Amino acid sequence: MPGFSEQRKEMVKRYTRAGYVRSQALAEAMLRVPREEFMDPLYRQYSYHDQPFPIPGDGRQTISAPYMYPVSYEPLGLREGMRLLEVGAGSGYGAALAREILGETGLVVAIEINAVTCEFARENLERAGYGGVKLVLGDGSLGYTEDAPYDAISITAASPKVPPPLVEQLRAPGKLVGPVGGDRYTGQDMLLLEKDESGRVSERSLMKVVYVPLLGEYGWRVR
């Protein structure tokens, strides 16, 4: 089997051909970030397979299939110097990609509700050299007012509707992407919400997806 570096290159080629990766910035980020460093060691050998895998937490958390990151990030138009809020830090892989794109002048805040998962993300980010990500333990559906407003918000778990605090914390203009609607297990719309300069909000569905539920005040209150 090819080494991880070769698998990473093939992944980016595959996703570019498929139209998932469209920007040079994201292509370069996906080439630089070692996804294997963000996997549960039990599944490390499958780092570049096109599917999600479990990560430490309460049994619900996963690292998404790698193509879902460009599906979420490309519509946000991420670029150097922007401020991004990631709701659901998970493994930390998405935050690392964003950190590569936003650069030293940008800000990546990732908030995670599960303490075990949050610590897993922290260890992964530090080991891979992304200590500059601001990682917060808390209810992501409430956002993080300390560093608001954000130019872009990425929600990585499904909620019944876009949490109002996140819309409030989005800059005008700004963009938010996340899985919304349906029910907690059978599928959602990957929604792109755009706020214009006047604060007016519009939304449209990008595709159908199936994500784990977002927990919190404005998420699914799973017992």
Can you tell me about this structure?
The protein contains six helices and nine strands. A hairpin with a 5-residue loop joins β8 and β9. The longest helix is centred in the N-terminal third of the chain and has 15 residues, at 4-18. It starts with a helix and ends in a 14-residue tail after the last strand. The mean pLDDT is 95. It is of the alpha/beta class. α2 (24-32) packs across α4 (93-102). The protein has a seven-stranded mixed β-sheet. The chain has a two-stranded antiparallel ribbon with strand order 1-2. It has one domain: Rossmann fold.
CATH class: Alpha Beta
The profile of the biggest β sheet is:
7 strands, mixed
Instruction: State the low-pLDDT regions, or none.
Output: none
Order of helices and strands: HHEEHEHEHEEHEEE
What portion of residues is helical? Answer: 25-40%
Side-by-side strand order of the widest sheet: 5-4-3-6-7-8-9
Gap between N and C termini: 42 Å
Overall geometric form? globular
Q: What is the helix tally?
A: 6
Share of β-strand residues: 25-35%
CATH topology value: Rossmann fold
- The assigned CATH architecture is 3-Layer(aba) Sandwich
The figure for the number of domains is 1
| Number of distinct beta strands | 9
